[in-house]
Amino acid sequence: MKTLVVIVHPNSHESGVQSFLKESCTSLTDVTIYDIQEELSSFDLKKTQELLTSHQRIIFQFPMYWYAAPDMLYKWLEKVLTKSLYQSGLKGKELGIVMSMGQKLSAFQAGGTEHFTISELLRPFQALAYKCHMTYLPPFPISLFPYLKEEDKHRLLISYQQYLTKENDHRFVTSEKWAINRLKELSDKGLINDLDNRLSFIQDTLENNRMELDSLLTTLEEMRMD
């Protein structure tokens, strides 16, 4: 699966979170970065549409501006989404949203300080996906990035890489498959050594986690039957 990340930011190089996310993509296979701001001066409609149609998963990545995406995304969509593209060119593809914000996620809920959920605020993109006959993925919000600890950033990196490249399947076995394939990719690129031992360790860990998960599901099922 090939993924296209469309960055929507007036100056992504000066953004801590955007720089972090772009760096997270450098070791990923079949992930293409397209920065709208950087491509403005050389924008080519045909090439841009070919880029969209040649990828199976399309990600819009942006900071939240007044509960929406930056205006440049909508101007870009007005140019790119011709009738032929939204009627058939994007059919069967996936659309995901990566949105950073300066508020806590807990603020975005009924009764919270922002009153509305992230999914509610992003509903226009869900409508866009349906219009283009695409599968809409659950949003990937990033909250208060400058205040994250190093271990939190590491977890964010893994989750983000999974959002870009893992199959849209929330079963544990899919995450297991992704982790093993990711490790093999890093080994092939010479970024890690001692692959066999690392794979053995990870497979043992995943197997233990699966057993714990199976045990938990069994317990929940027994509780339901009681």
TrEMBL record:
Q: Where is the Flavodoxin-like fold domain?
A: 1-147
- Keywords of this entry: Oxidoreductase
Q: What Pfam families does this protein map onto?
A: Flavodoxin_2
Parts of the chain that traverse the membrane: none
Gene Ontology molecular-function annotations: electron transfer activity; FMN binding; NAD(P)H dehydrogenase (quinone) activity
Which InterPro entries does its entry note? Flavodoxin_fold (IPR003680), Flavoprotein-like_sf (IPR029039), KefG/KefF (IPR046980)
Superkingdom of source: Bacteria
Query: What PANTHER family does the record tag this protein with?
Result: GLUTATHIONE-REGULATED POTASSIUM-EFFLUX SYSTEM ANCILLARY PROTEIN KEFG
Task: From the Swiss-Prot or TrEMBL record, give the protein name.
Answer: Flavodoxin-like fold domain-containing protein
Which species is listed as the source? Vagococcus martis
